[in-house]
Amino acid sequence: MKKYVFTIIYISALLGFTTYLALETFVIPHAEVVVSQSTADTNTDNNPTVIDLSDVNNSLLIAESDNTSELDAGNAGVSLQSDPISITLSTYREYDTTIYVADVYISSPEYLKTAFANGTYGRNIKAATSEIAESVDAILAINGDFYGSQETGYCIRNGCLYRSSADRDAQDLVIYSDGSFEIINESEITAEELLANGAQQVLSFGPALVENGEVVVNEDDEVGKAKTSNPRTAICYMGEGHYLFIVSDGRTDESEGLSLYQLALFAKSLGAQTVYNLDGGGSSTLYYNGEVINTPVSGKRNSSERSVSDIVYIGY
């Protein structure tokens, strides 16, 4: 009898410890840095700041148009313009999938930013893309790299270094202070070196889909154990001050979803020079002018946004 009691105690303790580890890794929030929103200056030290948008008057023109896209989209939609920022949203139908493209022109790289859920860097700190976007008065936003689900991988945001532990062979997107893009491998350069070179944002998800205007993935490439056809999120560099934010639907009766290769071909067809794959699946969300544009699929019974760690956005 004593032997069985010991076995029961041992199994109970093991189950309890396993449950705790799972909660610690995936559920329990761990705030490490609370990002100040009291100043409009970005910096390159270890005191992260983001712009306080509470007093900014965004007098933006919203207009319906039948042909507003520079991309010659089949279904051009809403165009939002102001002197420093121009955004045109278009809808495409490719590969039995609805794809949304935000064509963005900005007069200064300062309008291309990132933000953390709840204004906090840490593990399991999450919020819906739309909630994060609204908290920073974003005009346009997409989900980021979900850095909070990983323990490694470079994390530089708005010119501040938060995590420098490398994920071996990870392909990162570096956005420099001049707004240019570069794909790097974490095994070849340190986060500190990137920061010294002028990196404003480093996103660690991947892979790169297009470099120098050429597709760099093949039909068999995929992210981990993800399905071949998925909702997708990507950010593209077209040229100085010109970007595309791409989000596709997927996993629904209306939209099958895209493979990485299909997403790469589609982005290249629009003239993208550098294309980087961000977190997809249930995370894929496009927020524009106060609304969620696509149909996020979180895996729950009713379609809804998945809570994520971070966003990439356009705003003042």
Draw up the topology in text:
Blueprint: H1 2-26, E1 30-34, E2 61-64, E3 75-81, E4 85-94, E5 97-106, E6 112-116, E7 120-123, E8 127-128, H2 129-135, E9 140-143, E10 155-157, E11 160-163, E12 171-176, E13 181-185, H3 191-196, E14 199-203, E15 208-211, E16 214-215, E17 232-239, E18 242-248, H4 260-269, E19 274-278, E20 286-288, E21 291-292, E22 307-308, E23 310-314
Antiparallel strand pairs: 1-7, 2-3, 3-4, 4-5, 5-18, 6-23, 8-22, 9-20, 9-23, 10-11, 12-13, 12-14, 15-16, 15-19, 17-18, 17-19, 20-21
How would you describe this structure to a colleague?
With 316 residues, the chain is an alpha+beta fold. The chain is 15% helix and 35% strand. The chain is built from 4 helices and 23 strands. A 9-stranded antiparallel β-sheet has the order 2-3-4-5-18-17-19-15-16, covered by helices on one side. A hairpin with a 2-residue loop joins strand 17 and strand 18. The protein is globular, with a radius of gyration of 20 Å. 44% of the residues are buried. About 16% of the residues have low confidence.
